[in-house]
Every structure is written in structure tokens, then in C-alpha cells.
Amino acid sequence: MFYVGIDIAKNKHDLACINETGETVITNFRFANSCQGFHQLKLKLEQLSPITQDVQIALESTGHYNYNIVTFLRDLGYNVFAYNPLIIKEFAKSQSLRKTKTDRKDALLIARKLRSDVTPERYQTDRVLDELKELTRYQNRLIQSRSRCKNLYIRLLDIIFPELHRIVNNLYNQFIYDLLTNYPSPQRIARARFSSLLKIKRLTADKAHQIQETAKQTIGNASPVLSLELVQLIESIKHYDKQINQVQEEINLLMIELNSPITSIPGIGSRLGAIILAEIKNIHNFKNPNQLQAFAGLDPAIYQSGQMDNTGHMVKRGSSYLRYALIQAAKLIAIYSPHFKAYLRLKISQGKHYNVAVTHVAKKLIRVIYHLLKTNQLFDEAKLR
Q1: Which of 46, 47, 106 is nearest to 77 (CA)?
Q2: 249, 270, 305: which is the final residue of a domain?
Q3: Number of domains into which the chain is organized
Q4: Which among 81, 104, 125 is the end of a domain?
Q5: What are the C-alpha distances in Å from 7 to residues 32, 98, 326?
Q6: Which of 27, 77, 149, 352 is the most buried (most CB within 10 A)?
Q7: Which residues make beta-bridge pairs with 124?
Q8: What does the pLDDT look like over 183-232, one tens digit per residue?
């Protein structure tokens, strides 16, 4: 068996290899992050052994830089393992007190960590979960972009037609988009033929009359520039809506492929379930629910203020994506599950602020998620205690 460690960088990568006795077989092999470099890597690995199962490969989980090489190696049939950089850092401390750092030594350190690991399969990369993580984070970026557009849209309406929100509760309704796209100022709405307004789908005669009469008396300040901006913002919001829905369709397909029990939990659908699974990846990476709680950043340490590291930056813990999904899931399960609803009420009755109480629900939910993923069992309200 050969244990290969690869230190990933943007333009080049360093490889080191040891055998099952710990003897160094390759001290350092540097190859470019290119088609030619990947071909050289393939030849180097084949020199170790023509049988892919005789070679195990590990690297640090360093974001998008390792995406292509992991896919390349998996397609060749190799088992690829990804370690959190903190795990490698802790392993380095146990190996030596010398504070030297080079890419060559990093690659060798990763190889040694892989050889010493009794259960490296915990860190094995998974195509579906990798794709799910990419999709959920991309969807999150789209949602954030849409939110920025929506904020600007409301800002413009407050200038152009500030009375509109008193007539229509939801300014994101499709009929409002259609109305403002065709008549992007109160003056144009006021001059429009009433029969033309009624051609807009889902705009009732009563609502159209209210809007038109109010438009005639608005204090809003419209201009061609603001009208242009309004129309384009509506187009952007609708475009983001379409993209978000398309991404969700792909997420749904991956969730069907995973067939995880997480969506059996009340309130957790494909979107939240996908974020949670994508961030956790392999539940066997966590020895107990407390470790998962810490990974989510819901352990007590995150509430300590003024905690700084030696570089002067604020220490950040856990996955913010996982933390967000768990908090949202906690709010929902407290609605749909009698047990969790009672638990939330208990915490509030103890004098805790609603947000703090929800955090307690999230911590309790983590234990349920941990158990279900570990045992591959479906959620059962009757088993809660």
C-alpha cells in the first residue's frame, strides 16, 4: 500500500509518498495545475502501482483549488481523502516541535497522517456531496444577490410610488411586477386606460381602481431614470428567481440520489436538508453530537466576546452555512413537532429571549440529526424525550 499526500496550490501542486512501513518513496514531486501536469501525475501514480486500490491519496480541503484534481483522481479510480487543515495542523504538532513549513514537508505530513489514520474512510470524498455543497452555496449567493435587488426595488418604490405598499401587502407579486414593467411610474398608471390595467393577470378591478386613483394623488417623485432602474431591477429579480429554482431542481435530484433520512424531520425539506448534508458531508467524521454542535458554531464558545488569535483577527468557528440551516430548521420544527414546540415554550418560560431559545432548539435538533444520520433511521416523534 502506498500513501500519497498532495499539497494544493493555485498554479502548482506538491506530492510526497510513503509506503506501508513509513519509508519515504517520493520526497517531492511538483506538477502544474494543468492538463500536462495532471498527465504527469497519472504517470507518477502508475509507477507506484498499476492497481489504483494499492494507492491511497490525501490532501487538505482547501476550497475550490482542489476540486479539479479530486475529480480527476476519482475518475481514474483512486480513493481520495480530504482533511480539514486544522486536523493536519494538530497532527503536525504531534509529530515535531520544529516550526518549519514548506509545501514539500506539507505533502509528506499529509501522507503520514493518511498512513496513521485507522479509519481514513471518514474523510473520503464523495461526488454527490461535493456537488451538493457547490450547488447549495451557489444558490445561497444567488439568494443574496436577489435580496440586494429586492432592497433596491423597495427603495425605488418608496421614492416613485410610496403609497403603493398600503394598497398591496406583497410588492413581490407577479401582477405588481407586470404592472410596474408596463407602467413604471404613477403618472403612467394614472393615464392608463382602465381596460388595459384589467388585462394584467390576477389584478382585480377593485385593486386596479385603488392603485390608479392613488397614483393620481401620489407624492412620489418619478423620472425616466428611476423608471428605467425600476424595470431593470424587476427583470433582475425575476431572473434570479428563475436561476434559484433551476438550482433547486438539481438539488432535488441529488437529494433523491442520497435518499437521506434528514428530510423525514418535520420542517426540513430538500433545501435545508441539502445545506445540512453538504456541510456535514460524512457524519462519521464526528464522534458525538457535541463535535457536530461545535462544527456548526453552536457551542458556548461562540458567544464569548473579545476572543482573539495571535494575529489579531477575531476567531471564527464553525460553518456559517450549517449554522444558518440549523437555526432555520429549529424554527420550523418548533412549529410542526409537538415535542420541539413544547421545548421552545419551556425555554421561553425560563426567561430566555426567543433567539436564545431557538438556539437551544437547534442544539437539541443536532442530536436528532446526528442519530438519524448515524443509524439511517427515519424521524419518529414518539421516540423523542
Answers
A1: 46
A2: 249
A3: 3
A4: 125
A5: 12, 19, 33
A6: 149
A7: 81
A8: 999 999 999 999 999 999 999 999 999 999 999 999 998 899 999 999 99
